[in-house]
Amino acid sequence: MDVDVEIMDVISKYHVPNLKLRKKINRLSGDNLDFCYQCSSCSGICPINMVSSYNPRELIHLGQLGLELEPSDIEKLWRCTTCGACEKMCPKEVKLTDIFTAYRSQVVEEGGKVPHTYTQTLQSFYTYGNPFNLRSAERADWAKGLDVPTAKKGTEVLYFVGCTASYDPRAQNIAKSLSKIFNHTKLDYGIGGKNERECGNCVNFMGESVLADYEKEKNEKIIRDIHPTTIVTTSPHSFNRFKHDYDVPEGTEVLHYTELLDRLIKEGKVEFKDPTEEKIITYHDACYLARHNGIYKKPRRTLKLIPGVKLVEMPNNRDLAICCGGGGGNVWAETKVDERLSIPRLNEALGTGASILATACYFCLIMFIDAVKTVNREDDIAIFDIAEIVSENLL
Questions:
Q1: pLDDT: which is higher, 192 or 55
Q2: 74, 227, 297, 329: which has the fewest Cβ within 10 Å?
Q3: Per-residue pLDDT at 22
Q4: Residues 6+ apart with CB under 8 A from 197
């Protein structure tokens, strides 16, 4: 088919081209719409195609044409997990996640119909500052009865717990495990407590950039007041947001907790007990730790240094790791069982013969726990975060 005829066919399916919309998306995405030449490499690598038909290239093309989206395309736009696999494959290094984020923000700004599960989550963020409809006063309740200090001016390490590790009962164990490790190593750390705000990473990628920036400013003030030498996060998503979008004081480094654990182990501050048995563990690369920020070796090194642990790799690992399906706000979305990325990824883990699937992201932890229950394989493999594994093996 002639290219011009094909484009006219596409245009006839949608609203009249909106050049103002195109300019906005392009500006907000750093002119990335201009860089894409429609080679379709993104569509070939997109993990969503493992479980349903999905075409990132088509969505990009609609943006290039400045076309208003139909409801079915809006559903597709929010289906993206922002995992970054497309960006690793793109020969032009187009930042597709920036384009999709800009596109989502324009749909939100112009009153477009956002899929209802995302609307509910965003409403909770607006009202309570977290996706769980719980009060900010309860944010540090997970630490009750534990020796967890609140950060004050001059505290060396500010531990940013994050919404999910603060409120979700299962993910809270990651925060408890990290506090146990920090106390074990006599780290000078503290949490923000009820003053901590949500980081804004997921809210931003769901299209609410204004709310994300508002929460960012609140957190930046807390950081300025404490002026820590290090900010350490539970979540790779928070880590990504702090590292790339926040204005932190000069000299303050931002680390994901796996980076800090690697450092503490190297310094000889972590003492492990003797193993009672060998454990075969496989590790899942979280998208915002691995592809987006290039952290591959440190989590693996930590696992290998735990006595009795044998680390085995899944077929798709590092840059090629299959997304858990929770990014971009999808951890709170209603996804059909046969369209959940967590299940094919879990099957890869099961194929290694490992008894434990280790994660370094609470979204991944939640998605895989749900997946293992869904396919009735709880007796075959357990899901634990690296922090939990380290904590359980401390001397």
A1: 192
A2: 297
A3: 82
A4: 129, 215, 218, 219, 222
Name residues whose C-beta falls within 8 Å of residue 173's C-beta, 6 or more positions apart in sequence.
385, 388
Long-range interactions of 333-339: CB distance < 8 A, separation 24+: 333/78, 333/115, 333/117, 333/118, 334/117, 337/374, 338/51, 339/51, 339/52
CA distance 292 to 295: 8
Q: Which residue has the higher pLDDT, 187 or 122?
A: 187
**Predicted TM-score of the model (pTM):** 0.92
Of 266, 297, 326, the last residue of a domain is 266
The residue behind tokens 């195609």 is 49
Among 32, 205, 216, 29, which Cα is nearest to 108's?
205
Structure-block tokens of residue 10: 């596409």
Start-to-end CA span in the chain (Å): 68
Instruction: Identify the helix (H) or strand (E) that includes residue 358.
Output: strand 356-359
Do 96 and 171 belong to one domain? no
Residue 80 lies in a domain: yes
For the cut 50, the answer to whether the pLDDT of residue 51 exceeds it is yes
- CB neighbours of 52 closer than 8 A, spacing ≥ 6? 339
Enclosing H/E stretch for 382? strand 382-385
**Residue with tokens 């006839």, as numbered in its chain:** 12
Q: Answer yes or no: is 158 within a domain.
A: yes
Sign of the alpha-carbon dihedral angle for 374, 375, 377, 383: negative
Q: What's the pLDDT score for residue 68? A: 73
pLDDT number for residue 13: 53
Token duo for residue 215: 């929460």
pLDDT, tens digit, 9 for 90 and up, residues 122-156: 889 989 999 999 999 999 999 999 999 999 999 99
What would the two tokens of residue 144 be? 């009750």
Would the pLDDT of 1 be above 50? no
Q: Which of 95, 54, 96 is nearest to 75 (CA)?
A: 54
Of residues 386, 206, 369, 204, the one with CA closest to residue 289: 386
pLDDT in tens, 269-285: 999 999 888 999 999 99
Smallest CA-to-CA distance from 147 within 112, 183, 117 is with 183
CATH number at residue 353: 3.40.50
Q: Which residues contact 307 (CB under 8 A, 6 or more apart)?
A: 272, 273, 274, 275, 393
Average pLDDT over residues 1-30: 65
